[in-house]
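Re: weekly structure request thread

Next one in the queue (178 aa):
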Amino acid sequence: KAGIVCSLNARTAILASANPADSCYNPKLSVVENIKLPKNLMTRFDLIWLMLDKRHRDNDHRLAMHLLSMYSEGEKKQVEPEVDAETFRRYVSFARQWVFPTISDEAAEVLSASYMDLRNQGSREVITATPRILESLIRISESLAKMELRESVLASDVNEAVRLLKAATYAAAVDPET
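Done, posted below.
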């Protein structure tokens, strides 16, 4: 965006955010048209979550009160995390250093079948899944197993990866009519 030229490594974790071109998301346009990012750049992301700021009276009030409490002199509520920060850091460090899950035969079968299902959703003119999508499903499945410190990827990890892909990227970037 804004004329930035970049190259992305295949195994790099990227978290990006983009605002709509005219500062207001137009639901009549595609995500690509709203964000004005080239399609080839959009396909580089494993998951794309479309987060719209919709008006909702109760949610807006709750958000306003939360933000005001951060700046007011009144008593501030501290939310205690379920896992303390140091334990979480050590957990992530351990997983990065010692956990390298492999894909089980059952998971490989589900990956193959899921990829073929995604690929065959389109028409002859429009391909809905490319090998890059399969690689995304593999990475997401491995990540799910790694989070649970497992040595192998299960079929349930693949099913969750497919669900995430459909809920995020496909809902945001694929035009159901074409």
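Residues 47 and 102 are 21 Å apart (CA to CA). The mean pLDDT is 82.
Next request, please.
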